[in-house]
Amino acid sequence: MNAIRHFEKNPVNAIILDQQDPLKEFRKKFYIPIRNNTEVIYFCGNSLGLQPKITSSKIDHELKKWAQKGVDGHFNEDPWVSHHHKGKTAMAHLVGAKTHEVVAMNNLTTNLHLLLASFYQPKGTRKKMIIEKGAFPSDYFAVTSHMKQKGISPEDHLIEISPDENGYFSTEKICHSILTTGDALALVMLPGIQYYSGQFLDLKSITHAAHKVGAYAGFDLAHAVGNIPMTLHEDQVDFSAWCSYKYLNSGPGNVSGVFIHEKHGNNPDFPRLAGWWGQNETIRFKMENDFDPIPGIDGWMLSNANIISSVAHLASLDIFEKANIQELRKKSILLTGYLEYLLVNNEAIKPHINILTPKNESERGCQLSLYFYDQGRLAFDHLTKNGVVLDWREPNVIRVAPVPLYNSFEEVEKFVILLGQVFD
Ligand SMILES: *Cc1c(COP(=O)(O)O)cnc(C)c1O
Questions:
Q1: Which domains are seen in the chain, by residue range?
Q2: Residue range 13-21: average pLDDT?
Q3: Is 99 touching ligand 1 by the criterion CB < 6 Å?
């Protein structure tokens, strides 16, 4: 289905689209921020997702347990020691993994470091890494610091793939770069969805190309998870990590998710930075020094879970289980397609913007990145003043992310009307 063509053939208004939306009740599960006594139009879920109303009671429950039981909370009913098992099914659904391939722990950048410690193992002339030009700084810092720590110069060994003038990365170009680097390539680390342009990369083809030359392929899914369904296990992706506070709505700075394919995860000798929480659970509390890692991703855990914040993650994952990522994706295609349809058919707006995000629905999630030829800052300020929450990126880009869990077609329509006022 191509949503924009669908709307061109069957013009409908937002009210009807909202009435027909099978997921419309999910909005009520979230607090929508208020400005001037009115709910804002929140199109910033790509940066910080909204708070589910259930979250505070889940946190309260654990606080009460701690108050009433103290240390016994670790081992009593619903014990904290096994807390990390609880989100696995939902996370596995979101990224297309087996449950023993995913776990929530630490924060995103920390996990990137752990994953690089495992998967960046330069040997002989195989030292190079591939990332994208304009990568999120934390990812760039993580990758280059691992190189430097091993005495490998990023100037000579880091390959940054450039996008075209619209910020687009062609799969052919990426794969070509991988194949020509050949056995000098150790690792490809790319985004699932590129944060600036909103492009969803072809994880499967990239992974396949990396494996062809004997390299690993890993992805930062910060902007992809909870936004677009994936099939990491089937695609043979080696590793991934993501944060849970963007589309996953688990609260500012909350825990990160990690994936390691079972073909590596089940290998007890796979290199890693280890901690006691990754130790075989039957002997963990014997406190001995022989490391026998839990099979699967759990063997990479370092520490006992931060319960107070992790329950906020579980509260949000529950909502995703109820809504179902495949259903969310169906709505998302329509919602973002509707936004694109209204923008490209608006005579006032059209000459002023270039949509950087790919037109092809299979190459994007919910976000559209609008490049303004002129008056971008003016447009941003007008929208902000009128209760739209958006995200500005230098030099001239507004990222607009209508989220299928809590945004409506009517909000999309209002947004386009407000933007049109800038150019009238
Ligand atoms: C949001 C984001 C981060 C943030 O990292 P934290 O460790 O959670 O602060 C890192 N990388 C990418 C690509 C992101 O989108």
A1: 3-53+325-423 (3.90.1150.10), 79-320 (3.40.640.10)
A2: 95
A3: no
Percent of residues, the chain, with pLDDT higher than 90: 94
> What confidence tier does 1 reach under pLDDT thresholds 50, 70, 90?
low
Q: Buried b / exposed e across 12-39, counting CB within 10 Å, b at 16+?
A: eebeebbeebebeebbebbebeeeeeee
Global pTM reads 0.97
Give me the mean pLDDT over the 216-233 stretch: 98
- Report d(CA 214, CA 277) in Å as an integer: 31
Could you tell me the CA-to-CA distances from 234 to 97, 237, 262 in Å, in that order?
A: 8, 8, 11
Other CB atoms within 10 Å distance of the CB of residue 370: 23
For the Cβ of 188 lying below 6 angstroms from any atom of ligand 1, the answer is no
Q: How many CB atoms lie within 10 A of CB 214?
A: 11
Residue 73, amino acid: G
Q: Whose CA is nearest to atom 15 of ligand 1?
A: 222
User: CB within 8 A of 226, min separation 6: which ones?
Assistant: 49, 94, 246, 247, 248, 249, 320, 325
Ligand 1 closest atom vs CA 243: 8
pLDDT one-digit tens code per residue, 319-357 = 999 999 999 999 999 999 999 999 999 999 999 999 999
* Position 200 pLDDT exceeds 70: yes
Residues 250, 313: contact at Cβ < 8 Å?
yes
Give the Å distance between the CA of 12 and the centre of ligand 1: 38
Tokens (6 digits) for 5? 């063509």
CA of 247 to the centre of ligand 1 (A): 12
Asked whether residue 266 carries a pLDDT value surpassing 70, the answer given is yes
Ligand 1 atom with the smallest distance to the CA of 191 is 13
Q: Do residues 365 and 198 make contact, with C-beta atoms less than 8 angstroms apart?
A: yes
| 91 Cβ closer than 6 Å to some ligand 1 atom | no
Mean pLDDT of 135-156: 97
- Residue corresponding to tokens 């130790």: 279
| CA 108 – ligand 1 centroid, Å | 6
Would you say the CB of residue 107 lies under 6 angstroms from ligand 1? yes
Residue to mutate (ligand 1; options 195, 197, 242, 245; most atoms within 8 A of CB): 195
